Amino acid sequence: MDTSIQRAIELIGEARHIVALTGAGISTPSGIPDYRSPKSGLWQKAEDMVEVASSLGFRRQPQRFYEWLRPLLSIIREATPNPAHIALAQLEAAGKLEAVITQNIDLLHSRAGSRTVYELHGHLREVVCPACHYVTSAADALDAFMTAGVTPRCRRCHHIMKPNLVLFGDLLPRAPLRAAQQATHTADLMIVAGSSLEVSPACDLPEMAKAHGARLILLNYGATHMDDLADVVIHDDVAEVLPRLAAPWTAPRLADALAALMAATTAPLAPLLAALDAPDAEQAGVSPSA
Length: 290
Ligand SMILES: [Zn+2]
Hints:
Shape: globular
Number of helices: 12
Helix content: 40-55%
Radius of gyration: 21 Å
Number of domains: 3
Distance between the termini: 13 Å
Strand order of the largest sheet: 3-2-1-7-8-9
CATH superfamily of the largest domain: TPP-binding domain
Bound molecules: zinc ion
CATH architecture of the largest domain: 3-Layer(aba) Sandwich
Largest sheet: 6 strands, parallel
Order of helices and strands: HEHHHHEHEEEHEHEHEEHHH
Structural class: alpha/beta
């Protein structure tokens, strides 16, 4: 595996336009189950998925949808970004990563500090009115639901609002999909992390990247149908491997902190404490050197 990691680091070093594509597997180390999978424990029966979490299901029984969503919401609200999310945010901050394309709705990329994130399946940042399309921040609405069971109502037309998620049978939101395709067209390296590449369009983007001449790194616990097409395949824990792939571009920050430490041995302690308190030093500490 070390040879694959070394090769992946070389590809990242050589690339000028890198995009990452992430799926449920990048958030499982944060404790979030893949809500689209029947194996996630969030479903009684497979057919419930369409019955409960589709636009039709939501229109028929919004209360049932919200009760289904409750355990997932509760997990996501407690979850924090893991080293894999942080590694991608650090690669972007270091100028090595242009965008994260994700199927996840949990906002953990943004919370880790990623700035350019294309959320193909929507997100939990907003709620939207299915009748008049009024959109508002989800924070207060979902708080009220979690604490008092109150489903959010549109302030314009009084319909029950839904989280801005792609439900089963919905079309993907056009703007992030178009941006993701654009980024894929111009990429010379795509890093797939934590996606089994079974759901469209995630399964199409790596192929599109390859067709445009990009190289492909596949990092996922299990095998995918794209493994043969990839330049590097790593079947391992994303939270362990992604920080290692990012380390060459995040290490300088650690070096800055160490330089401050060296300087402080002959100087007053204040700069040392300031360096150790700096968020950059703290983030650099997250990436394992093993
Ligand atoms: Zn409305």
